[in-house]
Specification:
Decarboxylates L-threonine-O-3-phosphate to yield (R)-1-amino-2-propanol O-2-phosphate, the precursor for the linkage between the nucleotide loop and the corrin ring in cobalamin. This protein has helices at residues 14-21, 45-52, 65-75, 87-97, 113-120, 143-148, 167-179, 235-243, 252-263, 265-288, 312-321, 347-361; strands at 30-31, 82-85, 103-108, 124-129, 151-155, 183-187, 211-216, 229-232, 292-293, 300-304, 324-325, 340-343. By secondary structure, it is an alpha/beta fold. Helix 7 (167-179) links the parallel strand 5 and strand 6. The protein binds pyridoxal-5'-phosphate (PLP).
């Protein structure tokens, strides 16, 4: 019997999902619902945090000069084009705050916090739905919604679809948005999982002053408890974004880790090696079980069962009973629970997922 408690708002909320389904605690549960890197955090992190503890007795540098310079070097931009944030989540809320009480367009299905941030800042929201299974965007479809808009939010690569809008689509979109005076906020929280180089939109900052890029360090380095992200934009926009940020928003330990995290290219290489091996393996396993799988450029898959099979909820429930926590899609407009999002994990866990799905398919 399904209880009437709310769907959990994000991945990783095992007890809320169990409660939703009226199930007792299940131990152990393997978490495929949060799209974090299973290789992290990097080994050296504990020592680095211990070494940085001494700085806790002081306020952080309010302008975060050192971490901003490290990010600027890493990204090939000027330090005054960087704002350090308390995770990608704070970056989203700051970006929404720039157009408080204005009009926003959100390309859906996508991360639910854009809508929450817009609502918190009194923006009126228009959704621009992308259709399954390609979740492609024709920039011509944006012409009309952009006419009324102040800001457009989109996620690239997109959570929850794992798809990446092509670079030329982004150029066309940015161009027409600029002509209409619209700011484009592109959430690149998952860009480091794209293993082909040159996909990040950073170089477009030099051409489009209406572009704001949003990054997170919590996904790649498996640090969601630490909170660390940043914004990239033109210097003037960064000043306006900073004006809306509380002082010392990023704690000293997080700020101290920026430079060493970005310098750890071995960690990124290992992550890409894991993705190159496990992503095609899991994808073909899922496909061979008859699941519809959206081709992913990152570390998670959006899947659904064919017609005549149980709904996303039935699959989610049976996976839970098999000790696997998957992400529901009830709070992704357009998906409405029909799909399930599965993170890519280490080989043994992925095999366990495939075994559970094979058992489910044989029912
Ligand atoms: C697309 C996207 N952007 C931003 C965030 C927020 O990340 P952070 O942990 O850095 O706040 C998430 C977290 O799930 C996300 O999925």
């Amino acid at each position: 019997m399904t209880s009437h408690s709310a769907w959990p708002s994000h991945g990783g909320q095992a007890s809320a999902l169990l409660e939703r389904f009226g199930l007792p605690a299940i131990q152990p549960l393997v978490d495929f619902s949060t799209n974090l890197n299973p290789l992290g955090p990097p080994d050296w992190l504990g020592d680095a945090i211990a070494g940085a503890m001494v700085g806790l007795a002081r306020y952080p540098d309010p302008s975060y000069t050192e971490p901003r310079e490290a990010i600027a070097r890493h990204e090939g931009v000027d330090p005054n084009q960087v704002l350090l944030t308390n995770g990608g989540a704070e970056a989203i809320f700051l970006a929404a705050g720039l157009h408080a009480r204005g009009q926003a367009v959100i390309v859906e299905p996508s991360f639910s916090e854009y809508a929450r941030a817009c609502a918190a800042h009194g923006l009126q929201i228009t959704s621009l739905p992308l259709a399954a299974p390609a979740f492609d965007l024709d920039p011509d479809r944006l012409a009309s919604p952009l006419r009324q808009a102040d800001v457009l939010f989109l996620c690239r690569p997109n959570n929850p679809t794992g798809t990446l809008l092509p670079w030329h689509t982004m150029e066309r979109l940015l161009d027409s948005a600029r002509q209409q005076g619209v700011t484009v906020v592109v959430d690149e929280a998952f860009i480091d999982f794209v293993d082909e180089p040159g996909e990040a939109l950073t170089p477009l900052l030099a051409r489009f002053d209406n572009l704001i890029l949003l990054r997170s360090l919590t996904k790649l380095y498996t640090l969601p408890g630490l909170r660390l992200g940043y914004l990239l934009a033109g210097a003037q926009t960064i000043r306006r974004l900073q004006a809306g940020q509380p002082p010392w928003s990023v704690n000293h330990l997080s700020a101290a880790l920026v430079a060493p995290l970005l310098a750890d290219s071995d960690f990124l290489d290992c992550t890409h090696a894991w993705l190159r091996e496990e992503r095609p393996r899991l994808q073909s396993g899922l496909l061979s079980l008859g699941l519809e799988v959206v081709p992913s450029r990152v570390n998670f898959f959006l899947v659904r069962q064919g017609s005549g099979s149980p709904t996303g909820d039935a699959l989610l429930r049976r996976l839970l009973q098999a000790g696997i926590l998957a992400r529901h899609t009830h709070n992704f407009p357009g998906l409405d629970g029909g799909w399930v999002r599965l993170a890519l994990r280490g080989r043994a866990d992925n095999d366990r997922l495939l075994a559970a799905l094979t058992a489910e398919a044989a029912r």
